[in-house]
Amino acid sequence: MVRIDGRGDANSLIRARGLSKTYQRGSEAIHVLQGLNLDVDAGDFVAFMGPSGSGKTTLLNLLGGLDVPSAGSVTVAGDEITRMSARKLTAWRARHVGFVFQMYNLIPVLTAFQNIELPLLLTGLSKAERSRHVETALAVVGLADRMHHYPRQLSGGQEQRVGIARAIVADPTFLLCDEPTGDLDRKSADEILDLLERLVGEHGKTALMVTHDPLAAERARVVLHLEKGVLVDTVTAGRAR
Amino acid sequence: MAIPLIYNVRSLRARWTSTVVAVLGIAGTVGVFVAMLSLARGFEATLVASGSARNAIVRRAGATSELDSGVTLDQVRVIEDAPGVERAEAGPLASPEVVVVAAFPLKGRDTEGNAQVRGVSPKALAVRPSAQIVSGRLFQPGMTELVVGRNAAEAYDGIALGKSVRLGGATWTVVGVFDMGGTAFDSELWCDANVLKQVFQRPPNLFQSATVRLTSPEALTAFKDALTADPRLTVQVDREVDYYAKQSRQLTTLITVLGTIVALVMGIGAVFGALNTMYSAVTERAREIATMRALGFGSGSVVMSFVVEALCIAFVGGVLGGVVVLPLNGLTTGTINWQTFSHLAFAFRVTPLLLVWGLAFALLMGLAGGVPPAIRAARARIAVALREL
Ligand SMILES: Nc1ncnc2c1ncn2[C@@H]1O[C@H](COP(=O)(O)OP(=O)(O)O)[C@@H](O)[C@H]1O
Ligand SMILES: [Mg+2]
Predict the structure, then answer these.
(1) In CATH, what number is assigned to the domain containing residue A186?
(2) A52 chain-B contacts, CB cut-off 8 A
(3) Of ligand 1's atoms, which has the minimum distance to the CA of residue A52?
(4) How far is CA B186 from CA A54, A59, B88, B178, in A?
(5) Which stretches of chain A drop beneath a pLDDT of 50?
(6) What is the mean pLDDT of the segment spanning B300-319?
(7) Statement to judge: residues B342 and B259 lie in one domain
């Protein structure tokens, strides 16, 4: 279940209450989010749409603990992350969030394998266990044969698949994808969307995705629009329905 | 767990031009630093090695060097009879000596260098057993003959076995070359003390110093006590090593201080080079850093990572600087011994300890050049940095 009225029960995986974010640009205050509410259950696949500058990235950053809100709270699996110290929040991100970026954000000097292994370095896993996990993630995204390639030796679509493998390798609580297909051609974009759909459908992941692309949004179970700092539910599209 | 080192190493390689600039700055500084200190060490070692722990040098009380010292023949007799002096068939092992400084043309240069000409007793070789005649023979008593130190033969024109040398209005023949293991004596010319006094019209009964061979290093105390208590003498007695160590101190200190100052000034430049390299690395990799932070690497890991990266640069620079000056080791050069105003050949000494010092200096520069950029990297706000392209 996904709700935006702030009435979700305590069981929802991700819960945002009265979330506000104001940026200061010079003397001008930009109110990007204004009392936004959101409840997402485990296993949901949510797409956020909205015009450029409407605050989609800002919302994901707050949900993923990359930034702190001006007001309001975010609770994930019972932990109120908006009250955590910076240090705790860092550890929380490592444990619970898988980020997928529009520009992939792979480390150029590391191979696909090494990029995917990065989040595992923050766990107590042995080298052999890490290798096993990386290989599993590579198999899921279908790039087992490219593990020793560097990002520049991969196509955009392949890079994003490495990015997704890196996001899922440590088995996070949920995925945050900020325009994951924004930089890809149609065919590659569709492959990435297939992959995300499979991760939710077959692997039971929870995914929140920002997109401009209506075809991408269609793949999600719920599409929410960000307007004037809050979420609105004008379109309930998606094949799942 | 920390951000893997391979990330830093490969990043440095990826931006190799910038890396090379920083490495060279540090290498140059370390090179100069180690070279200067090895100069000081070499000078010190040469002079210290010149003295023997079993020898004592007796000079007039208050004399700063042999040049302004005087010891009379009567006093030499008393010194020879003092306790602790080694005795051989030829009698007590004491060498009353006279020193004059004379200018000779330096090889391959247009200038002259001052050499110490030391008039010694024929027993000089027994008093200083480490002196070996490597070619020719010792001078004959009463003859205008010279035996020259190995480095003197190298340094001056016309001072070679069999050559005639004009000195003090007389013509001398070089009859032998001696080697004392690269010490200060190897830059000297030796002859019969009595002949030298005659030629230079010095008073026949006056020497400048007397060096004695002791029965053992421990015999110095008894020897010294006897001489200083003797009312017939006003002399100072030093262990030969201490005398030469003292001579080396002034120049050694000067070179060390100068070397350190030069290295510090260069070091400031090198630190700025490293700072520049690391700041631009941090700027260029802002999004990479933010990505790592998003993945869950802490700010401490980021600081560590960039400090380690700077230390990698410093390490390579330090090793390179050391390797570049390593060939200097053993290279002979010359300087003026300020205590005796004479030319002294000595060799650079690039010791392992100096290399360790050089490396430590390099790492210090790396730390100074790495910490501020590392802190900036860790302080950057993730959400802001992720937006940067
Ligand atoms: N650090 C910041 N400082 C000031 N303004 C910001 C900052 N980050 C984002 N903004 C502004 O906030 C608004 C929302 O940005 P963003 O969340 O990136 O929107 P979207 O992802 O929907 O395009 C934009 O007007 C943007 O310029
Ligand atoms: Mg955005």
Answers:
(1) 3.40.50.300
(2) none
(3) 23
(4) 86, 82, 25, 7
(5) 236-241
(6) 96
(7) yes
